[in-house]
Design goal:
single chain; 782 residues; alpha+beta; Calcium-transporting ATPase, cytoplasmic transduction domain A; Calcium-transporting ATPase, cytoplasmic domain N; 4 domains; six-stranded antiparallel sheet; 22 strands; cadmium ion transmembrane transporter activity
């Protein structure tokens, strides 16, 4: 496809137009004018200086007065009214310098607030742009034509190519493999047989297939999701500025005090002085500075927040709802376990499957090939590869025909039990067969993110009291993930509408955050007070309606954002409170006639300096997680990388344990046991010892104390004990065969070591390796 021609625009005029629209231009111009007036004053041209300052005051007054009148017409009441009255009073009593100083402060607050509002703003336009625009329609003469989506009618026969988004709701005419996660939240690929209904918005993850349109584009699922998101965004109330919430009490107090000072003394200048020192600069300056500092910090952590109001809301949140697929989980399949027929070899089954799948574009194929290469298995070049949509891939590997996909025919007893086991564990089984029948199956899972459990704990510590997982996935799979990460409640099989309704219900009781990554999450994100999208995982509609987007594929950055938002809001509230307290004292002095307007304006400037310096504290601090030293990060990367080798030994350990359990008299049993013990001694124990010696002491600082790793150290002791126990059994077998009376205890040691090591690796990846703050750094999946 060719690219559209782009209009050439001179760079300098474009920059000039951007500068003209910039929010900082009024502030810069007013500041220059005030300094010019000061230069004239010191040059002896006092009248000219007063004229310049008066002009600055009027220039600031006109837009401020218009904004205030418009707000009052809409029955909105904010801090701007004090600034307007102070500017008017300064003109009336001819305190032009005081008015000019107030004008600069007002302009500074406006510029900071506008800057915060313009950061990372998004709307529904990108959501609409991502919707399908056209479709491939079959013609009566057997050809294919590309037509605009609005020309697709009910009953039309369409062709959906590999990787295409299904354009309208319809019925598949042949077997299809679909990725429905963006619409339903279902993490596993779904096979649809001929005659099954499919929804628009899902992605074709297999070969092309025919589709008969059941609805037109306007009535299809994707269009409905777009409408839901748009309606929810329209219903969403505008954010209330933190400064305006304080104004509800401060403004009436100021007006009453100014009126009393004028009434009791008969001097209008006292009222003006009260208004001048009451100008809410701590609110107009310190609060935006703290909020903008927070926005800048979360952006550096990989979180783009739409505006200051969204950051304030994030800092007040009490309820968090999280999608599962792609949010708490990785969102892409991984080979979790290889199960083989009695007497089979796990490594060989995975090697055969990956060899055949090398030429397939299927996402499951990529997962199998990646897993085999990570284990160092030598893949063969397949021949005569064919792919049957909805059934799988077949080809010749090393002279034998290998099929990968669904199981054909009546499964043997062991295969039937395996299918039931996969269903119970929430995994999907990819069968590997040859001409003689099934060789084994590869169980695929969508692994929980290594940082998910730690992130949930940090979110609770940050003040979120209720955490709920909402997902379109199956209840069994959803409950398992919920137990791992530690949420309070789980709602499974949620449609987009049900997710949005649930968020709406939660939002009625507390400030609510919703986190998701798929098209199905967009309505719920728009309903929440703060919608957060996992933008790095290819989020479609979710990023377009979200108030914040995680631009790196790490869930722990959400905890960073919440902690920074709470800290920035706390600093903003503190700055406003201290500034207003000092201003009240100055107002009382001004009401007593001891503080003229000009002196009051400069005193207010001093107060501003104090609160601004305090607000700048929001540029640092607040994070509970400590950044790791470079040496510690190197150690984490090193030992995380070694976990792949340990898992390879674990797979051999499990194979050997199964061999001992099923065929203890097999002559190959004892050599296999000796080999796995050798690898445990030569590879696993040195890894654990090095962690104990180097990694754990390095983590004592970031984790708070050496006690934080004590339970992991205890696991090391147990691992060593079980390896030695296996070695003791080997020493007691001098005749080359296992004694029957030794088998139960040996199996207890083998399976016990397998369980302890797997749990130990998972805990290290959750508790330690997820500490690495490097962008894109992830521990190996389980």
């Amino acid at each position: 496809m060719g690219s559209e021609p782009r209009e050439c625009v001179p760079e300098q005029p474009a920059r000039a137009r951007r500068w003209a629209r910039a929010e900082w231009a009024p502030l810069v111009l007013l500041t220059v004018a005030v300094l010019a007036g000061a230069a004239l004053w010191f040059a002896g041209a006092h009248d000219a200086a007063r004229l310049v300052w008066a002009a600055v005051t009027v220039v600031a007054l006109v837009p401020a007065a218009w904004t205030t009148l418009r707000q009052l017409w809409l029955r909105q009441f904010g801090v701007d009214v004090i600034a307007v009255l102070a500017l008017v009073g300064a003109l009336l009593v001819r305190e032009y310098l005081a008015g000019a100083v107030i004008a600069v402060m007002v302009a500074t607050g406006r510029a900071l607030e506008e800057y915060a509002r313009r950061r990372a703003t998004r709307d529904l336009r990108a959501l609409l742009e991502r919707a399908p625009r056209q479709a491939r329609r079959r013609t009566r003469d057997g050809g294919i034509e590309v037509v605009p989506l609005d020309r697709v009618a009910v009953g039309d026969r369409l062709l959906v190519g590999p990787g295409d988004v299904v354009p309208v709701d319809g019925v598949v005419e042949e077997a299809a493999t679909l990725d429905e996660s963006v619409v339903t939240g279902e993490s596993q690929l779904v096979n649809r047989a001929a005659g099954d209904e499919v929804a628009s918005g899902v992605v074709n993850a297999g070969a092309g297939f025919g589709l008969r349109a059941r609805r037109n584009a306007a009535e299809s699922t994707y269009a409905g999701i777009v409408r839901l998101a748009g309606e929810a965004t329209a219903r969403k109330a505008p954010m209330v500025r933190l400064a305006d919430r304080y104004a509800a009490a401060f403004v009436p107090f100021t007006l009453v005090l100014a009126g009393l000072a004028w009434l009791l003394s008969g001097e209008f200048s006292r009222a003006v002085a009260v208004l001048v020192v009451a100008t809410p600069c701590p609110l107009l300056l310190a609060t935006p500075i703290a909020v903008v500092s927070g926005l800048s910090r979360v952006a550096r952590r990989g979180v783009l927040v739409r505006d200051g109001g969204s950051l304030e809301q994030l800092g007040r949140a009490r309820t968090l709802l999280l999608d599962k697929t792609g949010t708490l989980t990785a969102g892409r399949p991984r080979a979790a376990e290889v199960v083989v027929a009695p007497g089979g070899d796990r490594g060989e089954v995975l090697r055969l499957a990956a060899s055949v799948e090398q030429l397939s574009p299927h996402v499951l194929a990529a997962a199998l090939v990646r897993q085999a290469r990570e284990r160092g298995l030598p893949l063969a070049e397949p021949a005569q590869v064919t792919e049957e949509p909805g059934r799988g891939v077949s080809g010749r590997v090393d002279g034998r025909t290998v099929r990968v996909g669904q199981l054909a025919g009546e499964p043997p007893e062991w295969a039937g039990r395996l299918g039931e086991r996969a269903e119970r564990s929430g995994r999907s089984a990819v069968w590997v067969s040859d001409d003689h029948g099934p060789l084994g199956a590869i169980l695929l899972e969508d692994p929980v993110r290594p940082d998910a459990r730690r992130t949930v704990r940090r979110l609770r510590e940050a003040g979120l009291s209720r955490l709920v997982m909402v997902t379109g996935d199956r209840p069994g799979t959803a409950r398992q993930v919920a137990q791992v990460v530690g949420v309070d409640d789980v709602i499974a099989r949620c449609s987009p509408q049900e997710k949005a309704n649930r968020v709406r219900q939660e939002s009625a009781h507390a400030v609510t955050v919703m986190v998701g990554d798929g098209v199905n999450d967009a309505p719920a994100l728009a309903e929440a007070h703060v919608g957060v999208a996992m933008g790095a995982t290819g989020a479609t509609a979710s990023a377009d309606v979200a108030d914040a987007v995680l631009t790196v594929d790490r869930l722990d950055r959400l905890a960073d954002a919440v902690e920074i938002a709470r800290y920035a809001r706390r600093i903003a509230v503190q700055s406003a409170t201290v500034g207003m307290g000092l201003a009240v004292l100055a107002m009382l002095v001004a009401a007593a006639g001891r503080l003229p307007p000009v002196a009051g304006a400069f005193l207010q400037e001093g107060i501003d300096v104090v609160v601004i310096l305090n607000a700048l504290r929001a540029l640092g601090g607040g994070l509970r997680r400590r950044d790791l030293p470079a040496r510690t990060r190197e150690l984490l990367d090193r030992y995380a990388g070694e976990h792949g080798g340990v898992r390879d030994v674990l797979n051999r350990l499990r194979d050997t344990a199964d061999l001992v359990a099923t065929r203890p008299d097999d002559p190959a049993c004892l050599p296999a046991l000796r080999e796995v013990h050798r690898r445990l001694v030569d590879e696993v124990l040195p890894h654990e010892a090095a962690e104990e010696r180097q990694l754990y002491p390095a983590l004592a600082g970031p984790l708070g104390s050496a006690e934080a790793t004590s339970t992991m150290s205890r696991a090391h002791v147990e691992i060593v004990r079980l390896v030695e126990r296996i070695g003791g059994h080997l020493t007691a077998q001098p005749d080359g065969r296992l004694r029957r009376d030794e088998v139960p205890d040996l199996l207890a040691a083998l399976y016990g070591l397998d369980a302890v090591l797997r749990l130990h690796l998972a805990q290290e990846e959750e508790e330690y390796f997820s500490l690495d703050p490097e962008e894109g750094s992830t521990a190996p999946g389980r």
